[in-house]
Structure formats: structure tokens, C-alpha cells
């Protein structure tokens, strides 16, 4: 026995004491491996298996003699191979995954695990494609160098584009498009970092996923498990390495260590610190969240292709967004006999509060715009085409653009954002405004912007006086923010860059500017001891509460239907307080909500804007396409009130697949009567953002996942199904925007079940994930019971009455046309149109 013991010790090159210690260490390793085996056996999906293996890799293994290390390594290898073979057939059936994973190979992280522990002497025996852990770390570093270098290398090309005059000219339709998605320099700075991470992800997908035979979807999911490196991880600090350590920049933007106070009464401008445990949730300049994993043809950023056919073939690209628009949508006048244009305008106003997707400018020169088609609507030469371009192909037989021989519609890709978990992976797009319903379109989404809009006197927002009336302040950059012409020089500034978009939108902004200053004046009268800061913050707090109340009590039940709103728990209380807030609910806006579902608003728009007098007769009519980003019409005598009455009187268009030609061919038109198509742009944006197809969202929302086009028949008309069949090869190819808009309205709402589901889900989180929501109790921001009851009296009709120039009558429910049950009453009638009594805000010294 002693002889055997000596032989073992000699073979292991250890004395008796050392071998005893190694034995103890071996027992610990054995226990760890036993636990590991159980963890691997519990994995139900490939993703879970990868995550479990990643956890295993992080566990330290004691330093052992070669023979013992070899034995343990063999055991590890056996466990992983056995688990993969025994349980591989079961993996991939998780109901939580959109697409099942196949298990015909080891996940790359398991391969890393095997490679890490295999003896170096046996490296040559490993099969090709096995990736060692340190190799992945090296590939991450090289990929980040590649990402940084690729963006830097664009500098020369971008300089050539600028010197060649390949940029957007002021006053053109492309200029209007740029205004609508104008990026701030801060957004571009974050976007540049995110683009480096995106380029690095693409490099990793080629250097790791391709070698390991991963599908594009598997690769994308795997990359999200790899974190961007931080300076603390490497210990290096050279300038070049700091550029590559995007993890620090990402962590700073999504910091969980941001100093926040539970006792803060007023919201931050950018949405930070709403959640104390997740301070960056809902913050401006962060990415949209996802309801479904993104779908790109390469897994990272390239737009979807047809689901049937071989990839990498131009013939497998989805049909042109312009072709889909002209085939699926119609230019027609189909008014809603009950709803008014105020419903359309409030929808857009809420959309601008919650979402603003900026487009890219040049990565190395934020002052220079990107143009993807020439000014004649033709394709640019390849050397003049920026990598951020994704132009829309226009067919030669286009019903409108063929007369101009136009073959190209401008589309610049959206600014990308760092992933919230600071990982590699597919592109996520940025929301430039806060994700909360917090009046950001009035007050701005950064502290700098908010301060630039204040007078710092009497709690007022900046304004100009013209003809005795209050208007928005003049823009500091009118040539950038408006499509100006010699006869139209007015251009306004507000919390949102899109304020000048069209007359009704500018009217709505002006009404709420006046509402803020009206409330601030009243509060100062009631509390003369309050200073500017308190007057401003209290007026802002009341205005945001009014916006939330109007949205949830008046607007949402019309859009989703009263029954659905009630069933979904989206009804607001008529008395008492709410306890809806949850620290664990992320309010961040979803990509599908911002990019598709809420875009139904465009079908409600009207091309002829009627100016209505006090007798509800038409005085004059404005053509929408002549006033995009040209707001001077508001200052002409009588026009402001005429537009306000028009909002409350003129019919909205129905929510369907019909649109006014003012936005399907004349959007942001120039002097040549040529413009863009909003539907084409919306479809292209959905593809740019990697939105999965309509069929996947159907399934998510509880509808039958279609196997063929006839399976759509419960929700979509036969005529629309016929068009879909002609346009798309497969039910899985249908764009979310088109499928959602094609559905029949459900019950008493405006929308079909898919868009209703996406919008309902969003507003449930918008409410439950907001610590400052207006009807909450036991928060530092909570109103008193008396104040809350006064807030509940406010309606959009009261805002119209109180802030127009000389409107003397209004119906109580402005989203509905005047009728016997909703008749016009005097604006002085505080019983029919209740008015909040601000004496509830009197504060003793």
C-alpha cells in the first residue's frame, strides 16, 4: 500500500503533503463538476445552455499537477459532450423563444470552455472551429479595434462627400425629412460609440460565429452574452485602449450608481432617477426596448429578406417600401363621422412626447448631413453613397414619381444606441427624448434644452408677443428648423424639434406654452412668496398631470376602446389615489410601438385644413402640403382661432389603409410640387430597425400564427389578403406596419388586435413604470387629494377655451364632433366644461 502510494506520488510529482492538498482540491473540483452537471441537465434551451456554460467558465479551477489536471479536464469534456448529446434533442422548444434553436453542435461558449481546459499539448487534436476563451477575448479586442478603425477610416470619404456637395440642401423635401428626425450632437456622440460597437459585433460574427457554423439569429443571441470591456477589466489605460473600452462609456450612460434622491419632488428633464434602483430607465438618448428579438438578415444590422429563398441574393430582398405603399395603400377621402381632427393631433402630440428617432449625420463631422439620393431623385454613384444610406427604390412605373423620372427616395438610417446591458449584439435604435409621458415636447429632454426655454422670471417659458398674443419664441436656427421661403420667415422653438411640422401641430404647442404661463401667473397670484424656480416647477408639474389625465381618460379609451381599456386595467380612477407604480416595471418605449403601431396616426390626417369661425362655418381652407415646416400662417389675423376650431370641428379620417396624397407623395414638398411618401419611410424605418414581421407580433399578441394568407381572414378583409398575397412571398414577410394597419378595428376602438396589443402594453408600462404619475399616493411628488380632484376636472376642451385668442364656445368632448349629446357651450360655462380651481395650491408662508 505504501509502495503504491509512493508510486502515485511520484507519478504526480508531489510529496505526501502536496498530494493530500491536491486531493482536497480535487474533491472540491468534483463537487463543482457534480453541480455543473445538474445545471447543464436543467437547461431547456440552447440559450440557457450557453449561459450556464458561461457561468462555468467563470469558476476558478485550482492549479493542479499535469496528470490530475488531465483527468479533471477529461471529466469536464465528458460531462459537456454527454449533456449535449443526451439533452440536445430537447433543447430549442422553449415557448419564450421566437425561433427554436437546433442542437447539432456545441454552442461556441461551450467550445470555449472545452478549449480553455484542454491541455496545450493536445491543442492540435481539437477539431477545427473550437474557440478558446482567451481567443474570444483576443477577438473582442481586435473587433473593437476594427470598429474604431472603420469609423475613423470613414473620415476621408466623408470629407470627399462634403467637398463634392453631397449633402442636404435647405428647403428641399430631404431637408424636411432631416428636420423631422434631426439629431442633437449629444445623440450623435452616443451614436458614434454605438456604431463602433455595432461594427465590432459584425466583425465578431464573422470571426467567431461563421467559423462555428452559427445561424445569424443564433449568432446575434450569442453576441448579447459578450459584454463590452471596461478599463477596470483590462488594467490598460493607453489612449487607444481607452477608445476601445466602450463598456465604460456604456456603463456611464446606463449607470446604476447615479446619485438619486427619494425625496425629489420634481422630475428630471431627461427622465433619469425616476426609478431609484434603475436610474437610467426611461432616460433620453437611450435605446428603445424590444417586445421581440430583432430580426436582421445578418443578425446584426442588415434589413430582413424574404423568408423563402437563399440569402445574399438581391432577388430575395423584400419588395420596395414604395411598391408596398402604392399597392397596399390608397389615396382617398374616408372621413370618420364621429371623431374630430383633435384626435389625430393629440395622437401625434403624445407620440412626440414619447418618441423621437434621430437619423445619422456624418460620423466624423456632426455638422454635415447625409444624402442618399441626388436632388433629382436618382441613385448616387457608389463613391458618393454613405454607409448610413438605405435609400428606397422607386419603380419606373410609379404612379406619381415616374413623371419626374425619380428612381430613388432618400432614407438615412437611424442613430443606434448602446445596448442597456452593455453587450455586443444587433443594432438598437435611440430614443432622443425621455421615454415618459412628461411633457418633453414642451419642456425639452435635457437640462440644457429646458433651461434654454425659460425666462427665469415668474416661472415663465420664453415667448414672443405679436399682435397682442403670445406665440412660441423664434428659433435660433430658422434655416435649419424650417423650410423657409422669402415670404415665410416665421420659425418657432419649443421642447421638440418637430414643432414647426404643420399648422395644427404648431397650434397645439402654442396652446400648451400659453397653458404653462397661465398657470404660472395664477400660482404667483395665489403664492406671491414663491420664487421663479418653484413657480416654474409647480406649473410644469400641473401641466404634465393635465397631459397624462387627458391621455388616459379621454384619448386612450377612444383609441383602444373603452371595454379593452377597462379590461386591461388602463382606466384611471375618478376619485382617490392609485398605487399602480412598480419599481420593477421598465417604462422604456418599445421599438414596435414607436416605429409601427403609433404610426397609425398618419391615416387620420386630413389634406385640407379648414379655418372655422365661431358659427362653425368654413372661412378658409389651407392645403397641408403647402405648410410643412412653414408655420407663419398662425400669425395671420384670425387663423390661430380658426385652426383651433377646425381641430374641434373637422372630421378626422378613418384609421385604415387610406391616406391623403399630401403625405404619400407631397410630404415636405418643394416649389416643384414634389415631396416624399410617409408610408414608404415608415416601412423602411421598420426594416432599418430590425422589426420582425407582422406574423410574429400576431403570435405574441395571442392571435393565431398564420401558416398561409387565408389564416389572416379573421382580422383582415379578403381584398387586403389578396393584395398581401400579391406583394409578399410568405406570411412571415409581411411588414408589421402593413399587417397592423390592414386589420379591422376591434370592438369600439380605432385599431385591430395587434396594434391595440402593442399600444396597450406600452401605456400599461408608461403608467406603472412612472414614479411621478399624477394620481399616485405616498410619493414626494403626489398631489393632495384636493389638488388631484382639480386635476381631474381638466379636459382638452378647457385647454382650447383658456388658451385660444378669442374662441368663445366649445363642445365638452373635443375628440367627438358637436352633437346633441356633445353640444357647443360657452367657454365661460365652468359646469359644462369644468375648470381646475388652483386655490388648492395656496401655500401658507
Structural features, described:
It is a single chain. The chain has 3 domains: 2-130, no CATH class; 136-315 and 335-428, no CATH class; 439-587 and 623-648 and 774-841, Haem peroxidase domain superfamily, animal type (Myeloperoxidase, subunit C, Orthogonal Bundle), CATH 1.10.640.10. Helix content is 42%, strand content 5%. It is built from 30 helices and 15 strands. A 3-stranded antiparallel β-sheet has the order 1-7-6. The protein has a two-stranded parallel sheet with strand order 2-13. It is globular. The protein starts with a helix and ends in a 19-residue tail after the last strand. Residues 1-13 and 40-132 have low confidence and may be disordered.
Outline: globular
- Helical content class: 40-55%
Alpha plus pi helix count: 30
Give the low-confidence spans: 1-13, 40-132
- Count the E strands: 15
Topology, element by element:
Elements: H1 2-11, H2 16-42, H3 46-58, H4 66-87, H5 108-117, H6 133-163, H7 173-180, H8 185-209, H9 216-223, H10 231-234, H11 239-244, H12 246-253, E1 286-287, H13 321-328, E2 330-331, E3 335-340, H14 341-354, E4 392-393, E5 408-409, E6 416-417, E7 428-431, H15 440-443, H16 447-452, E8 464-466, E9 469-471, H17 478-481, H18 503-526, H19 532-560, H20 562-567, H21 591-595, E10 608-612, E11 618-623, H22 639-649, E12 651-653, E13 658-659, H23 661-664, H24 678-688, H25 694-700, H26 718-727, H27 736-742, H28 753-768, H29 785-791, H30 796-803, E14 809-810, E15 825-826
Parallel strand pairs: 2-13
Antiparallel strand pairs: 1-7, 3-12, 4-5, 6-7, 8-9, 10-11, 14-15
